[in-house]
Design a protein that fits this description.
Length: 155
């Protein structure tokens, strides 16, 4: 298995900005769910730019292969709240590398409140999530594993 990888940014988020979510027309990305929240959320398309200052990344989705957007947020040190579905469960261990939520507005709002009120939890998540990306999900690792797989197949 060759997992997707992300580039590690030179600097982590200063976390002085807003909560951000992916601006997507894909109905599977559950923007309608986020629109129901009484939270100020910035919907963005340029994730690397947004993650320089993002406070939280909200990633509701109906299904997900792995979650490259979540990995990128984790690389920037932005805590992730994501749907408890698909490949997101491979990268987000609840309360360790992010928070997993159901697919209701209430569950996302509760998760955001939990993070916003617990700086120690945020610190632990940021540290462990970044370490996970560094160990298993960098672009360099993805390239190295791809080459290894080709070498195995070609003998």
């Amino acid at each position: 298995m060759v997992y997707d990888g992300v580039d590690l940014p030179a600097a982590m988020s200063d976390r002085t900005g807003s909560m951000v979510a992916l601006d997507s027309a894909d109905p599977g990305k559950c923007r309608a769910l986020l629109n129901q929240l009484p939270l100020k959320i910035d919907f963005v398309t340029d994730l690397p730019r947004a993650f320089r200052s993002a406070r939280l990344f909200l990633y509701p989705t109906a299904s997900e292969g792995l979650g490259s957007a979540a990995l990128l947020a984790m690389a920037y040190g932005v805590p992730v709240i994501a749907s408890n579905t698909g490949g997101l469960r491979e990268i987000i261990e609840d309360c360790q590398t992010g928070l997993l939520a159901g697919t209701t507005p209430h569950e996302f709002q509760q998760a955001a409140g939990k993070l916003e009120s617990d700086p120690a939890l945020i610190g632990r998540i940021v540290q462990q999530a970044r370490a996970l990306v560094e160990q298993r999900f960098t672009a360099q690792r993805m390239v190295r594993r791809t080459i290894e797989c080709y070498r195995q197949v070609l003998g």
